[in-house]
Amino acid sequence: MTSVPDDRFELPENFGPGSVWADRTGERTLVGRTQRGVEIPIGHGEGEVSPGELLKLALIGCAGMSTDVNLSRRLGEDFAMRLWAHGTSDEKQNRYLAIAEEVQLPLEGLTEQEVAAVVKVFGRAVAAGCTVERTVVPGAEVTHRVLGVEDPDTPEADQA
């Protein structure tokens, strides 16, 4: 089921595959949506996911997906895995200073060398394939633009 935003606002020029959006539903609450029809309540209330929780979920979700194929070769097709992300934002700086990821895997019965290989494969797969971590760790440039408002830094705005 493909989804597009309702017609309250025009679609932005950059709307395309991978675009997501969030609609305000009340004071400091939104519903995040994907083009595949997924809806995520965003906020700090019951049944809502906070933006910080979404960030941590994005990191461990990406790590899990990036390592899945390689780990299944070593642990079997139906291996169990649970990923955790821990981190509390620093209120003074209003940012996360660190996010710690942890993974639980069925390592019983493996030799020390096999466990070491699993750990190495996990780290390499995340480093090579996790787009979210590869974006967050070096620090992605994030821009903000209010659609429908002329950018004050454009030459046309300077002539006004």
From TrEMBL:
Database matches in InterPro entries: KH_dom-like_a/b, OsmC/Ohrsf
Origin superkingdom: Bacteria
Gene3D superfamilies (alphabetical): 3.30.300.20
Official protein name in the record: Osmotically inducible protein C
